[in-house]
Amino acid sequence: MQELQAWFHPVQMEQTKAELIRCNQITERYGLSLTEGEMQQLALRRTEALHAAGRIEFGSGILEKLARAFCDSPYLEQTEYAETLAQLQELFYLFKTECMERVSDDALVEAMRLIYNEAVHGDLTRLADADRNTIYRIVRTGSLRGTEWEREEMRWEDE
Prior knowledge:
It contains eight helices and no strands. With 159 residues, it is mostly helical. The protein is globular and about 40 Å long.
């Protein structure tokens, strides 16, 4: 296992950095960009997040999808952009494992985005409280209805 990780680590680092360079071209429109050092840190955190979740990933990671999905969030600012991406990445891998691969990457990212923007208003600690059943419901319905955050969504619709 360690031999496999030692071989993939440099490759994944370069893939992650290339993805994040592409992302900068899109996220800069929203006032968000990553420095070379932040890209390196995010690539390292990817490896750590995969290890913590007991996962191995071939090919590209989830950072590009997360950056694209969250870049227009009213709760994301440049000063915390890199750290927020790192935490979203960690949560993604934990949720993916908890959901036992029954939710596609895109559906999970969208569910996380909905919770982050409409339910917890950028609070990553509260996002981390989402459980498998809540995520399944949000993926299935595309809304917060029937979840602990249903009132939050209704409040947004009323405003």
